[in-house]
Amino acid sequence: MNKSTNHAFVNQMLVGALVMICFSGSLGFSTVWLRHAISLTADRNRQMETKLAEINRHIDETTAAIAAEKSPDALVRRNDEWHLGLVPPREPQVVRVPDDVEQRLMAKNHAELYAANEGSVVTPVVFNLGGGR
Amino acid sequence: MSSRVVQQPARGFASNYRIALVAAAILASLAGIGARLVSLHVLQRAKFLSYIEKARDEIIVQNARRGDILDAHGSLLATSRSLVVLGVDPSALAKEDEAKWPALAGLLGQPLADLQQKFSEKTRLSADAHAENDEDAQQIISSGDEHEVHWVKLSDSVDESTYDQIKALNVRGVYGSRVYSRAYPQNQLAAHVIGYVNKEGDPVTGLERYLDFYLRGENGWLESERDGLRHELAQFRSRTVAPSDGYGTVLSIDTAVQHMVEEELQKIADKYHPLKATIIVSDPRTGFLLALGNWPTFNVNDYNKASLDAQRNTAVADMMEPGSTFKIVAASAALNEGLVSPATRFDCTLETVTYKGMIRRLPREDQSDHFDAPLTVAEIVAKSSNKGAAQLGMLLGEQKFYDYARAFGFGQLTGFPVGGEIPGEMAPPSKWDGLTITRMPMGQSVGVTPMQIHCAMGVIASGGVLMRPQVVRQIRDTDGQVVYQFAPAVTRRVISQHTAQTMARLLMGVASVDGTAPQAAIPGFEVAGKTGTAQKIINGHYSDHHHIASFVGFFPASNPQVDITVIVDDADAFTPGGTAYGAIVAAPVFKRLGEQLIQYLDIQPPVASEGSQFAMEGGLR
User: Fold this and answer.
1) B157 phi and psi, to 5 degrees?
2) In Å, how far is B134's CA from the nearest CA of chain A?
C-alpha cells in the first residue's frame, strides 16, 4: 500500500473511519443488548412481583373463605345439613376428677408397681352414659 | 518502436475519486446526525423533556394491606382481600364473542338480558344534555351532544377465582381493575364492636375506626416510565418506596362466646319481640370483654342495608333507668361505710319516714311483694325491697350516696373505646328534689348505660375495684410479633375487699329460692346477681305496661370468672302475665349462658375447702 501520496492519506483516513464506525457500532450494539437484557430482567422481576401479588391475593381470598367456613354460624349450619347431631356438653354429663389426672392415669396403668411399692388402691373413674353423677 | 509501460502506483481504497465522494457523503451524514443530535439534546431539550415526562413518567401507588382483626383465639373477624371491579368497553366488543355472553352472565350471577343491555350501551348523553321526548333525543343525537361510552360497570365485587374464570373466557372489551376490600367472615358476629370500613375505604364505626391508626398501614409508591401501550417499563424504575402493611389486632372477644350471646339474643327476639336487648360477658378480674351483643344487629358485610337503629351500639350509646340492679350501690356503700351489717334490720312496711326534719314518702314495693316483718340488709338485697333500698340511701345521705354512685362509674364514661359512649345522667345532690333520695337508691331518677351497670357489678366481682372495660388485647406487626400488649386497667378502688366479699355473698341470695331470681341459679356454681325490672317513662309517667328487664351477675361468687349482663327493653307484650320481670325474661338467659360458659371456659365448681378466693383477694391477672 502506498503510504506517501495523497491517496494514501485518504486511504488511511477511510480505514480509520471504518474502524471507528465498527468500534462505535459494536459499542452501540453492546449497549443496546445490555439495555435489552436489563429490560428483560426488570420485566421478569415485575412479572414475578405481579405473580407474587396474585398469589397473595389468592391466599387472602382463601383465608377469608376458610374463616367464613369456620364461623360458628357455618358450623351450626353444617351440623344441621349433615345431620351430625353434635351438641355442647351439659354439666350432668361431666364427671369432674378433682385429683391430679396424670398421677391418676399413671397409677392406673402401672397399678402393680404402685401396689408393690405403696400398696395404694386405684379407683377407676366411672362415666355415666346419658348424664347423672 | 518500443513501448514502455508505466507502472501506476496502487490506488487502494482511494484510488477512485468516486470513493472519495462516498467518504465525503459519509462524513456529511455524520455531521448531519451530529447537528440533529445537538438540536434534539441541546437546543430543544426542554421541550422534548417535558413531553416525555408527561407521556412516560408515572407514579405507581402500591396499596398497603389493612391489618386483620382477630378474636382471642386467632379467628378472623375482619380481613382484607382484593376484589375486581369488572367493566366493559361496549365499543370494543367483538361479534364472535357473543356466544360467551351466557357463560359470563352465569359467572357474574346476572340475567343475560341485563348483561346484553349493558353491552348495548354504546353511547350516552352528555351530562348537560337533557331529552324530554324522542324528538329532543333525536335533536341531541344530531347535534352531537352524545358521547361514546368506553366503560360500563358490570360488577364491583368479583372475587379473584371468578375473575380468573372470566379472564379464561377471553371476552374482548371486558376487563377489571383491582381494589382492596374489607371482608368480615363472621358476618354479623360482634358487628357493633368491630364496625366496618365503607366502600371508599374509610373506617366508619367500631374498632375499624378506633384502631385505624394501627390497621391502615402506609401506602408505598414507585416512580417509573411506561411505553406507548401504557405498559410499565420496569427497567426505568427510579425510586421505590415499599408499602408498609397495617398492624393486626387481637381482641379479647371470643367468637364462640359471642356466638352464644347472639344466639340467646335471637331467642329473646323471637320469644319476646322486644324493642332492643343487650348482653355483655366479661372477665371481671381483668375487665376484658368476652362478648358484647345487641339486638337488633346487622351484617357488617351488608352495612348499607342496615338501619341506623340496628347499627347503634345500645350497650354504650343508649341510656335507661336501671331499676333494682342499682340497689347494689346503696347496699355496698352502707356496708363499706360500716353503717350496717348484713343482719341490720329495716322496717319495710312503712309508708313514710322522717328525713332531715321532713316527712318523705317511701316508694311502693313491687306488686307481688309485701313484707310484713322487718327485713335484714341481706333480705333487702335478696328480695329487692324498694323501701329497704330507700332507707339505706337515706342512712348514707345524699352526698355520700352520690359519691358512691359516681365511684361505681355512673354518670361518667366507662372508657369503652367504641360505639359512641354516653355518660348517662346523674344529677348532683344540689339539683335533687325531696323524693330523689328515696327513689335513686332503687334505680329511678338516674340514667345509665348497660355497660355502666355491667362495670358496677364487676366492682363486686373483682374484689372492690372498678375496671376499665376493654376489648383490645394486642397489636401485632405483619410478622405476628406483639408490638403492644394491653394490660388490665384499674380505674379506682370503690369498696373494700371485705365489703365486696360480703356483697357477693348477699347477691348469692338473689339466685336462691328465697330471692327474686331462683331462675338464674346454676346448681353447684354459686351464682351472685341482681334482678332489675325498671318501669319505663311513657308520656311523662312511669308505665305499668312497659319495663326494662335485667339480670346482672357473676359466678362462682367465691372465685368470679364471668360477669354477665342481660338487659331486655320492653318485652311486656309477649311475656306471660304482661309484665317483663327481670327474673322471668333475663334471669333464664343468664342461666343458659352460664351453663354454656361453664363447659366452654372449663369453669370449675367452687371447692368448699378453698373457700372464698378472688372477691376477697382482689387480685388481677
Assistant:
1) -145, 55
2) 48
In the predicted structure, residue B55 carries a pLDDT above the cut 60: yes
CB B218, CB B438: distance < 8 Å: no
With both helix axes pointing from N to C terminus, report the angle between B327-336 and B386-396 in degrees, rounded to the nearest 10: 40
* Interchain CB contact of B81 with A (< 8 Å): yes
The number of residues in chain B equals: 621
| DSSP H helical ranges for B304-423 | 308-311, 314-317, 327-336, 377-383, 386-396, 398-407
Q: Which residues of A touch B157 (CB under 8 A)?
A: none
How much is the ipTM here? 0.74
Q: What pLDDT digit, counting tens, does each position of B424-453 carry?
A: 999 999 999 989 999 999 999 999 999 999
Contact B79, A64 (CB under 8 A): yes
Measured between beta carbons, which residues in chain A are less than 8 angstroms from residue B10? 1-2
Each residue of B366-395: pLDDT tens digit?
A: 766 677 788 999 999 999 999 999 999 999
DSSP secondary structure of B14-74: GGSHHHHHHHHHHHHHHHHHHHHHHIIIIISHHHHHHHHHHHHEEEEEEPPPPPPEE-TTS
Asked if omega into B556 is within 30° of 0 (cis), the reply is yes
Specify the pLDDT at position A3.
57
| Chain B CA closest to residue A2 | B10
Residue B129 has pLDDT above 70, yes or no: no
Res B9: pLDDT? 56
> Among all residues of chain A, which has the CA nearest to that of B26?
A17
Q: Residue B223, SS3?
A: strand
Element housing B188 (H / E):
none
When pLDDT is averaged across residues B586-601 and rounded to a whole number, the result is 96
pLDDT of residue A2: 54
The answer to whether residues B43 and A40 touch, using CB atoms and an 8 Å cutoff, is: no
Residue (of A97, A85, A88) closest to B600 by Cα position: A88
Give the mean model confidence (pLDDT) for residues A34-51.
Answer: 91
Close Cβ partners of B88 (under 8 Å, ≥ 6 residues apart): B118, B119, B151, B152, B154, B173, B174, B175
Q: Using the beta-carbon criterion (under 8 Å), do B186 and A67 form an inter-chain contact?
A: yes
Q: B13 and A38 in contact by Cβ < 8 A?
A: no
Tell me whether B19 touches chain A (CB under 8 Å). yes
Q: How far apart are CA B534 and CA B580, in angstroms?
A: 9
Q: pTM (2 decimals)? A: 0.81
- pLDDT bin (cut points 50, 70, 90) of residue B620 is very low
- The reply to whether residue B76 touches residue A90, judged by beta carbons under 8 angstroms, is no
Residue type, B502: T
Amino acid symbol at B136: D
A61 and B600 within 8 Å at the Cβ level: the answer is no
How many angstroms separate the most distant Cα atoms in chain A?
A: 128
**Beta bridge mates, B294:** B278
Question: How far apart (Å, rounded) are the C-alpha atoms in residues B516 and B29?
Answer: 109
Residues of A in contact with B13 (CB under 8 A): 10-11, 14-15
Q: Which residues are bridge partners to B175 per DSSP? A: B87
B586, B336, B556: which is closest to B464 by C-alpha?
Answer: B336
pLDDT score at A111: 77
Q: Which of B373, B376, B374, B613 is nearest to B501 (CA)?
A: B613
CB contact under 8 A, A43 and B23: no
φ, ψ of residue B593 to 5 degrees: the values are: -65, -45
